[in-house]
Write a structure and sequence with these properties.
The structure holds 2 protein chains of 2 kinds. By secondary structure, chain A is of the alpha+beta class. Chain A has 9 helices and 5 strands, in the order αββαβααααααββα. A 5-stranded mixed beta sheet of chain A has the order 1-3-2-4-5. In chain A, α2 (66-84) crosses α4 (120-129), α2 (66-84) packs across α9 (202-216) and α3 (104-116) packs antiparallel against α4. The longest helix of chain A has 23 residues, at 2-24. By secondary structure, chain B is an all-alpha fold. Chain B has 5 helices and 2 strands, in the order ααββααα. Chain B has helices at residues 2-25, 39-43, 55-74, 82-110, 115-141; strands spanning 49-50, 53-54. Chain B has a two-stranded antiparallel sheet. Classes of the chains: A alpha+beta, B mainly alpha. Chain A binds chain B through residues 1, 4, 7-8, 11-12, 15-16, 18-19, 22-23, 25-27, 65-67, 98-100, 102, 137, 182, 184-186, 188, 197, 199, and chain B through 5, 8-9, 12-13, 16, 19-20, 23-25, 27-31, 33, 38, 40-41, 44-46, 48-49, 74, 109, 111-112.
Chain lengths: 217, 143
Amino acid sequence: MKGFYLLLVAVAAIGGGVLWYGSQRQAAPAPSGPVAVAAADGFRGYTLGSDAAPIEIVEYSDFECPFCASFATVQMPVIRTQLIATGKVRWRFRDFPLPTHAYSRYAALAAQCAGEQGKFWEMHDQLFTNHQWAQTGKNPRGLFRDLARGIGLDLDKYDACMDSQRYAGRVQASVQEGEARGVKGTPSFYVNGRPYQGRSASDDFKALVDSLTKKHK
Amino acid sequence: MIRRQAIVLLTLVGLLVATYLWLYKIGVLGELKCGTGSCEYVQTSRYAELFGLPVALYGVAGYAALLALGLAGLQPRFAADRRVSVLLAAFATVGFGLTLYLTAIELFVLHAICRWCVASAVIMTATWLLSIADLRRARATTP
């Protein structure tokens, strides 16, 4: 019996040690932490598609979330072709950087700063396509700047925007909006204001949109 | 006695796993070591909370209770006490039920698997089977 208790103590000590070590090695602090919303500018998120589209899908997304990246790179191109380009759907992107991700808020700022120069969706695509930055744990400032250069942004304006965290209030307002709507994870979707509980697959969105479009007729 | 020892060892490991997931959920750990699994997707989904509390916290509480009961059951004065077996089986059955529910959510709603959740499911299932075996033994030896 004494050997058994020694085994228990050893397991507890090793397990506790691993947890303690993990908590000490947590991801580096984000270059830009949460900020209070000083002056929300009423911005409601960048959109794709026609303003006259009968259906609006709102996506709450986190640039560091692997499933958001998978959705953006695998499902979204099909959705753009089948639903957005055909005028059936207007797609609205909302930031919902999760607090457990070190650089998602910083990435959201980069996309907003690209949006200031009319290239939000280009930056959105770059951040999700080159998603290795989210796995390395390294500060992605240099990579994001390279991506900004790659899509043709004016780097002086981009740097000024990022350094001043010009759109931090916008991002925070988006998070608060999501929390108020009950968003818990990413990606989360709302179809014409209602929470979407189905799979994050283009086929499922198409089936839902087709069914809603029939009801509208 | 060997069953209760196994239960204690299993629930100690389960407690560590649940604590790991809970620490992630409250932001103490920056990222989950998950390999090719979908831990973050599962842990950040709406199903990772139950009645406003992280599911992992229920795991911490459940495993801690089972561990305490198991340790009590190893003491000589409780070794033949059927009440310990009944309580162990009752707690383990609740835990096993919650495990079935959460695994179904992963498989059929989220279509994603979190390896740590699978580890916890295996531990809880084994604990439940051992607790039922312990209860049957207690019944068989009750005069």
